[in-house]
């Protein structure tokens, strides 16, 4: 992977988006196994309905993991200095997540050239499900 160079990146530049397949029950079951998060609200329709939800829904951390994939598709993991996220909506079955990022700031810290990125994970209707930011060191 050829990471972007600090000199070539401008505020307002967008990262290549990461479009993912629609969330289905298989995705949720696989994420449960991989993460160890077996909360029944994500895999048991009866439990979800008792919680007044129409059906199971995706783990918020699944969307956070997708944002991690967006970042590591842009730079190697060792260049990521910080990631923070805020959950803003529920990702329902059938939602097709798309992760995007934009350069919000360029600066220097601790002897490194860094960028602050605005991040979000939205569904196919443009509804944000997760928003956040990351700090990435560039050369």
TrEMBL record:
Domain MaoC-like: 23-115
InterPro entries named in the record: Fatty_acid_synthase (IPR003965), HotDog_dom_sf (IPR029069), MaoC-like_dom (IPR002539)
Top-level taxonomic group: Bacteria
GO CC term, one of those recorded: fatty acid synthase complex
One family name in Pfam for this protein: MaoC_dehydratas
PANTHER family: (3R)-HYDROXYACYL-ACP DEHYDRATASE SUBUNIT HADB, 3-HYDROXYACYL-THIOESTER DEHYDRATASE HTDX-RELATED
Protein name according to UniProt: Bifunctional enoyl-CoA hydratase/phosphate acetyltransferase
Organism: Caballeronia choica
């Amino acid at each position: 992977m050829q990471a972007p160079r600090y000199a070539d990146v401008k505020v307002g530049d967008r990262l290549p988006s990461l479009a993912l397949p629609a969330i289905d029950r298989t995705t949720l079951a696989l994420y449960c196994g991989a993460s160890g998060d077996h909360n029944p609200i994500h895999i048991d329709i009866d439990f979800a309905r008792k919680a007044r939800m129409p059906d199971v829904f995706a783990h918020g951390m699944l969307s956070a993991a997708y944002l991690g994939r967006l970042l590591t598709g842009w730079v190697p993991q060792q260049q990521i200095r910080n990631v923070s996220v805020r959950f803003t909506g529920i990702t329902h079955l059938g939602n097709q997540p798309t992760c995007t990022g934009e350069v919000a700031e360029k600066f220097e810290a601790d002897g490194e050239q860094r960028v602050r990125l605005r991040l979000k994970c939205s569904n196919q209707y443009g509804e944000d499900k997760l928003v956040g930011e990351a700090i990435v060191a560039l050369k």
